[in-house]
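Hi support team,

I've been running sequence recovery on a batch of backbones for a student project. Most finish fine, but this one hangs at about 90% for roughly twenty minutes before it completes. I'm not sure whether the input is malformed or the queue is just slow. I've pasted the structure tokens below so you can try to reproduce it. Let me know if you need the job ID as well.

Thanks,
M.K.
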């Protein structure tokens, strides 16, 4: 059994991000542009959905490619 403490990977509140924060949103996207899954980001389901929506908004506004 592992004695290692598992802490959440999130350090910032994703609710504060807007689609203009390309540098912050790029932490949740791979080099090829795919959105990282929850198990990799460490976000809750609610926050993952909101980050996904923000990334899609950024793509639609052509601020993130």
């Amino acid at each position: 059994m592992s004695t290692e403490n598992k802490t959440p990977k999130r350090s910032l509140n994703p609710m504060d991000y807007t689609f203009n924060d390309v540098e912050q949103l790029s932490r949740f996207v791979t080099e090829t542009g795919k959105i990282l899954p929850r198990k990799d980001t460490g976000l809750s389901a609610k926050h993952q959905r909101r980050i996904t929506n923000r990334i899609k908004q950024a793509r639609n506004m052509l601020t993130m490619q």
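--
Follow-up from support: It reproduced on our side and the slowdown came from queue contention, not your input. Helices lie at 22-25, 38-41, 45-60. No action needed from you.
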